[in-house]
Amino acid sequence: AMAAERGLTMATCTAPVNIAVIKYWGKRDTDLILPINSSLSVTLHQDQLKTTTTAAASRDFTEDRLWLNGKEADVGHPRVQACLREVRRLARKRRGGGEDTATLSLSYKIHIASENNFPTAAGLASSAAGYACLVSALARLYGLEEELSEVARRGSGSACRSMFGGFVQWQRGERPDGTDSLALQVAPETHWPELRVLVLVVSGEKKPVGSTAGMQTSVETSPLLKHRAEAVVPERLAQMMRHIQERDFEGFGQLAMRDSNQFHATCLDTFPPIFYLTDLSRQIIALAHRYNAHHGHTKVAYTFDAGPNAVIFALADTVAEFVEVVRR
Ligand code: DP6
């Protein structure tokens, strides 16, 4: 109430990290962030990894400002601006042009503060949680209630998938304006309660080649990526949805590993090549295969994004034993 008297309105949201099991890599439109293939991810629980963002608006603010993990950042970044513009456009549309005095003025400047509880830019999909959270906080600030994965996509492609929990598909869409390139929930988080995710932090350092630049070079130079998008992903996506529906861990895990490996193969096929995996990453891959061979079936599955850190999928009953094996 005191904040309202001072003409300050605030909204805080949190957003989760998501890990793709069918990877997004490559854009057909770099401005609208439209992908060359659909992708599918698992949204992680927010107890361990999350972004928290507060957006505040006041008539006393003289400029828009942004802080990331306590340090002021460039609010003029084109992707931040795209999200701001889109949310404000939707809010204006909703109000039907007339400025309602009961709702927050769209002309007020805003201050945004965002914090991750995990290392940024280390391949832990922080931009996904970050932009999903930014869009959610802005939407709450302006009282928007619609589904906004299309807006989150303008911040970072993978961010559209962090707008939902559980298992999420980002459908590539066909339209040039991107209105059909959005996220859809395939199954809710309650669908597969035994599924666990381990993050093995190989390095907390910033990656040398960001995903935005890396995937663009891949689109321009990798024939394997073109083949993957056209001939491999559509079938894999349908297969992965079936494995999830049936809670078939073996099918799910094997396909996740294959897709991660193919993504990193397209990185190697990029010219000049991009290396995200390190020797330690590859040791983890070998360990997972040895562990599965020892048990005679797929009990753990790895996946790696644009960085060296391993994400391991396993069922609850396998976690303690596999963690012990990793420690040794
Ligand atoms: C390897 O969503 O970070 O994690 O759209 O340029 O922001 P931009 O890229 P980003 O790329 C993520 C790539 C990936 C695979 C995935 O999450 O699907």
Automatic annotation (TrEMBL):
| Annotated ranges, domain Diphosphomevalonate decarboxylase-like N-terminal | 15-183
Q: What class of enzyme is it?
A: lyase
Which reaction is this enzyme known to catalyze? (R)-5-diphosphomevalonate + ATP = isopentenyl diphosphate + ADP + phosphate + CO2
Q: Which GO terms are recorded in the biological process aspect for this UniProt protein? A: cholesterol biosynthetic process; isopentenyl diphosphate biosynthetic process, mevalonate pathway
Gene Ontology molecular-function annotations: ATP binding; diphosphomevalonate decarboxylase activity
* Origin superkingdom: Eukaryota
Biochemical pathway: Steroid biosynthesis; cholesterol biosynthesis
Might you report a single GO cellular component term?
cytosol
**EC numbers:** 4.1.1.33
The chain positions of domain Mvd1 C-terminal read 197-327
Q: Which UniProt keywords apply?
A: ATP-binding, Lipid biosynthesis, Lipid metabolism, Lyase, Nucleotide-binding, Steroid biosynthesis, Steroid metabolism, Sterol biosynthesis, Sterol metabolism
Keyword Isomerase in the entry? The reply is no
PANTHER family tied to this protein: DIPHOSPHOMEVALONATE DECARBOXYLASE (PTHR10977)
Its biological function?
Answer: Catalyzes the ATP dependent decarboxylation of (R)-5-diphosphomevalonate to form isopentenyl diphosphate (IPP). Functions in the mevalonate (MVA) pathway leading to isopentenyl diphosphate (IPP), a key precursor for the biosynthesis of isoprenoids and sterol synthesis.
Spell out the family assignment given in the record's similarity comment.
Answer: Belongs to the diphosphomevalonate decarboxylase family.
- What is the recorded name of this protein? Diphosphomevalonate decarboxylase
